[in-house]
Amino acid sequence: MRSTLSSRVFEAVGSRSREFLGGVVGCVGLLHFVAWVSVGDGVGSRAALEAGDLALAGTGLVGYASAHPAYVLAFVAGIAVLLSARQ
């Protein structure tokens, strides 16, 4: 049975550390999205969502994902690491 580098690293780090790491990485992605919606270019998307215009709000979210893919990836990776630590 071959062991991949990532599995060896995860075994070395331990479950609690992975939970912490996943939480931190996920929170970084989430906090950037909150800042984008609050004071960044996402203010218009938030206003559209509050007005009930889901199509305009959806295009704003797609714009966020295309403009900031690293933060979307950080959020998804954080959740994945957190879930892998729970197993």
Secondary structure topology:
Elements: H1 5-13, H2 15-39, H3 43-51, H4 54-67, H5 69-86
Helix pairs in contact: 2-3, 2-5, 3-4
Can you summarize this structure?
The chain crosses the membrane at residues 20-39, 59-83. The chain is mainly α.
Describe the protein's architecture and organization.
- There is one protein chain.
- The protein is an all-alpha fold and 87 residues long.
- It is elongated.
- Helix 2 packs across helix 3, helix 2 runs antiparallel to helix 5 and helix 3 packs antiparallel against helix 4.
- It contains five helices and no strands.
- It starts with a helix and ends with a helix.
Tally of separate helices: 5
Order of helices and strands: HHHHH
Overall spatial form = elongated
| Gyration radius from CA atoms, angstroms | 17 Å
What proportion of the residues is helical, as a percent range?
Answer: over 70%
Which regions are unreliable across 5 or more consecutive residues at pLDDT < 50?
Answer: none
What is the averaged pLDDT score? 86
Classification by helices and strands: mainly alpha
Oligomer: single chain
- What does the largest sheet look like? none
Strand runs, count: 0
Straight-line N-to-C gap: 20 Å
Q: Please indicate the percent range of residues in DSSP E strands (runs of 2 or more).
A: under 5%
